[in-house]
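Hi everyone, sorry if this is the wrong subforum. Our group has a chain we'd like a structural model of before ordering constructs, and none of us has done structure prediction before. Sequence below.
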Amino acid sequence: MAKAEKKEKETKQKIKAEFISGKVLTESSDASRELYDQSRYGIMLDNGKIQLSLIEALHLMEKNTIEVYKTKTKQINFDDFSKKAKKLELNFWIRFCVYKDIRNRGYIIKTALKFGADFRVYDRGVKPGEDHAKWIVYPVYEGSTLTWYEFAAKNRVAHSTRKRLLIGVVDDENSVSYWEVRWMRP
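Answer:
Right subforum, don't worry. Here is the predicted structure as tokens:
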């Protein structure tokens, strides 16, 4: 049965997407709608296309789920897309490492800009819109510093949004360790 599953994966057609003005838009297809419905990648637009963040797009490229084109016929590869994304978004690679690790652990992870954080993470089995996120996540590089003021601000944001604070620490090998912070009453 493993051979049959592998063959099915190989024959499954990749979703085509366009890289336009710093945004990634998928084609309007059953496959892209299924990707959204199953895993909640991106934002579903009225025209049936899905708008992916640069991090989501790079992750899906790495998983061989999508092909990204910069023109109608010119495909962009993983390395070139990564370089462009690093120029467009601050701290892109650190954020990508945390995003990828959390997705690979089976959680749905979405942006959390309106909460003042990088990401929000839903517990396993919970999809956005069905319930609230459990954590807000701040990716950091292990060699960076965080002042007590910055730490307190992040903790206040988590507390005020009724979420747990998760700090994702990325090391030189791109491995991620997590620190969860919670309020405690003595």
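For your construct planning: The helical segments are 2-11, 30-39, 54-62, 78-88, 92-104, 148-160. The two ends are 55 Å apart (CA to CA).
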